[in-house]
């Protein structure tokens, strides 16, 4: 069992999400509105 | 020296309507999260998709006021990504795959002994959880366990390194395992593969 846990972790390759993906997320966030109607939350997208 | 605003404050600002706070959070954790996803899926496009889906979930949870700030932001986001990675592999397993003819089955001679990716992810998670559990042990027991299991040292070497007898080292190892099991039982932790 000891050997099972002593494997070397593989090194992470540094990767970044593209600026377009980040822009999409920021636009998505800006357009997303949550309406609370009598305790029930409704999502609406203003795009 | 530039001061960094804490994640918790950025989240609060974002919930209160400051969209720039989200940008800071995404950019701050972009590399860590993307690299984590890429290390599991090994494909840039899929990494991009899972990164995007992860933050869509984050945004929706925060905007709905459902974020429960018991833990730290990044581990929470990583957990979401981790679940999406598992979903991704589950979905792909249902994709059409090669079926052998009646005469010859290639898989009867070709065998891959490596864990499949889903099991590998689960194993990585268990390894990480186990490290956290070991941290909870008393120092003397933890030292013996780490030397034995992670450094592959014999009990003779452990005894020489720690200045205790072999019997004491053996006893500490025994109690380390008993205490680990106790922590696992008490917290209903499931470590399985």
TrEMBL record, chain A:
It comes from the Bacteria. This is Uncharacterized protein. It comes from Maribacter polysiphoniae.
From TrEMBL, chain B:
The keyword Transcription applies. Pfam families: Sigma70_r2, Sigma70_r4_2. InterPro entries: RNA_pol_sigma-70-like, RNA_pol_sigma-70_dom, RNA_pol_sigma70_r2, RNA_pol_sigma70_r4_t2, RNA_pol_sigma_r2, RNA_pol_sigma_r3/r4-like, WH-like_DNA-bd_sf. Keywords: DNA-binding, Sigma factor, Transcription, Transcription regulation. It comes from the Bacteria. GO terms for biological process: DNA-templated transcription initiation. Residues 129-168 form the RNA polymerase sigma factor 70 region 4 type domain. Residues 25-94 form the RNA polymerase sigma-70 region domain. One of its GO terms (molecular function) is sigma factor activity. Belongs to the sigma-70 factor family. ECF subfamily. PANTHER family: RNA POLYMERASE ECF-TYPE SIGMA FACTO, RNA POLYMERASE SIGMA FACTOR HI_1459-RELATED. This is RNA polymerase ECF family sigma subunit.
């Amino acid at each position: 069992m000891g050997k099972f846990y002593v494997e070397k972790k593989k090194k992470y390759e540094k990767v970044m999400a593209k600026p377009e993906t980040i822009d999409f997320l920021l636009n998505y966030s800006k357009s997303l509105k949550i309406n609370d109607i009598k305790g029930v939350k409704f999502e609406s997208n203003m795009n | 020296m530039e001061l960094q605003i804490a994640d918790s404050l950025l989240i609060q600002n974002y919930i209160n309507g400051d969209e720039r706070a989200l940008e800071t959070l995404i950019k701050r954790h972009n590399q860590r999260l993307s690299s984590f996803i890429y290390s599991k899926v090994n494909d840039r496009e899929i990494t991009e998709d899972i990164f995007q889906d992860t933050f869509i979930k984050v945004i929706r949870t925060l905007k709905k006021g459902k974020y429960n700030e018991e833990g730290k932001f990044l581990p929470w986001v990583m957990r979401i990504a981790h679940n999406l990675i598992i979903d991704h592999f589950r979905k792909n397993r249902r994709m059409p795959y090669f079926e052998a003819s009646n005469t010859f089955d290639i898989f009867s001679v070709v065998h891959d002994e490596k864990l499949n990716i889903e099991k590998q992810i689960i194993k990585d998670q268990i390894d990480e959880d186990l490290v956290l559990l070991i941290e909870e042990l008393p120092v003397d027991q933890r030292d013996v366990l780490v030397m034995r299991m992670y450094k592959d040292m014999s009990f003779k070497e452990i005894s020489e390194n720690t200045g205790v007898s072999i019997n004491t080292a053996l006893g500490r190892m025994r109690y380390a395992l008993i205490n680990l099991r106790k922590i696992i039982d008490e917290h209903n932790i499931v470590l399985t593969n």
